[in-house]
């Protein structure tokens, strides 16, 4: 038997031993879980028997309350430990299948050599010996960063160094070693080839076994206030970010919880796509949202235009019309500063208020509110004056309510009261009697009581509105700001004339009057309202992750910093994939300007792992002055450009291709430019193939072929991509280069570009050797 086989056998033996111990532990925990579960069940069943309920005297009430609380705490403690044991069992089940994926032999100075096995979680045997180290443990970083020879790694106590004698990778499935490699500098290409050659999944997978050195830097960074990752399409930005979340939760497990992290992703489809990575690593998902969803939650009364609608609307307009200039201006940092300056001027006067009305009558006029607001000392900030004004308004409303009780309408309404209302009044009277209070002894008193109830019912709504500061007229304030904004900004820097600016204002006002708000107005509007009314920034959030950062405007970045003042930011983006935001400066520079260079770390990922070398070579040439992109050598067919004369022929071709591709590859996506294009194609395709149209309303990845617009495909990947009609007519502007690049880079194994008539001129720059033409 050769040495190599001996090694393999020895390793398999170790796997067997580890798995046996894992199973043993699992068995023990299963028995434990049963007893914890039974105990919790018993507490729940006997809950009321074990507490003493006595509500006679105030002291008894306190005692009862304490007793209930103790019992509830006991129950939740048992339930928590039940949850923990369940989680541990889940992890053990994973270890049972594949206990580890790597081994490094490490010798620290004069100490004896140690064999470190690395897996998705630590496993310690009965003698407290580490049979498996968590991939996030300090020592595990030498596997990702180092190669055989001298190595060092960071621990919370400082740096440690020694020598790495061996670096080995395993692929273990169902407790059997399927492959084993000893590797050098990088984490073996063999392993990566194997992983990347697999089919796409409806959910993203974790990359824990093959994290690359540069990605490991992203994952383990703990000092930067701003970690900015500029990475080519498919270079693992999202993957690294998710591993980073898992790492941070492990590294700071005593002080950091998943609720203290938030991830802004491009769309809900993407949220769904990445939702299994953290649970796969044994961690809970963090809050995932999209900026649109966040903003919508702040605008209950307005219909928000989404970034996608903005895209759909603006692609139809000629470039550089006033709309795209408006988007530029309203996304600029100078616009943010303009809001700051405008608000400074409101300290003494200038806030807009609304009358507080009831039944068509003004209860408290806007002038009265304004007078009240500005009666407070101007050293009080605007937000600090709001609670004071609210308190006073509520007091005045009480007086108004008393007056209102005398009005005729109250009496009329009283006559319309049904039996139930009277019964309620009667019960109230009985309650009062029990408490030794004066109760109705005359018809007048009963009437008085009912009148109070009626008015109170109506006034309740008004009071709620006052408590929510609805007396402040944010819409009018925003319009006023727009009217005065040109005092604070230089319109000519945005090539805007006064007339165009006026047109932009009218456009915004028109939308607001129809209870709508354009995407470019959303953040300025939110910020203005926050500065005036005072919004509590989210101080409990410690880490903010923003994916597809290139689509955020500079003003949005400013707002993010304002909203999460104590957070560390991880921003992931690719300037080559900017679809929406065409700011004056690259986002990376803007982010550094905003957050300051001292605490910023920039990491560039240049190697693209998603696509075959043939696809990356092709997509790279669509960009002319793109960021650096390196190929990952993985074999595959050259992309094909298929040109047909008319739409019918194109649809025939797409039908054939989808039928062929679904037989050989896993997921197939047909990607169109806009939703409208996709809807038209869907009408023509739906009776020929079983395809699902993905839109804003059904953002979920499904099995089988999908048809979706470019912006919803962001961040996703598919085994095969068919680009829907990439004709010259469809994509002809230079600004659409990045859009076309984004669509094409979704393909992992095969890329087919279709076109009615001449394909987009944006492909002209691509070497004809890099694709085949049909
Ligand atoms: N170290 C790695 N090991 C294995 N697979 C990897 C690694 N890095 C990236 N990948 C794979 O490459 C693909 C692309 O990764 P990911 O989606 O994270 O890239 P991205 O940079 O966010 O892409 P894009 O900007 O195009 O959306 C995924 O299938 C991911 O699993």
TrEMBL record:
One of its GO terms (biological process) is recombinational repair. The keyword Hydrolase applies. Keywords: ATP-binding, Helicase, Hydrolase, Nucleotide-binding. One of its GO terms (molecular function) is 3'-5' DNA helicase activity. PROSITE patterns: UVRD_HELICASE_ATP_BIND. The keyword Calcium does not apply. SUPFAM superfamilies: P-loop containing nucleoside triphosphate hydrolases. Signal peptide: none annotated. Transmembrane segments: none annotated. ATP binds at residues 231-238. Residues 210-612 form the UvrD-like helicase ATP-binding domain. GO terms for cellular component: cytosol. PANTHER family: DNA HELICASE IV (PTHR11070:SF17), UVRD / RECB / PCRA DNA HELICASE FAMILY MEMBER (PTHR11070). NCBIfam families: HelD_BACSU (NF041464). This is DNA helicase UvrD. It comes from Heyndrickxia oleronia.
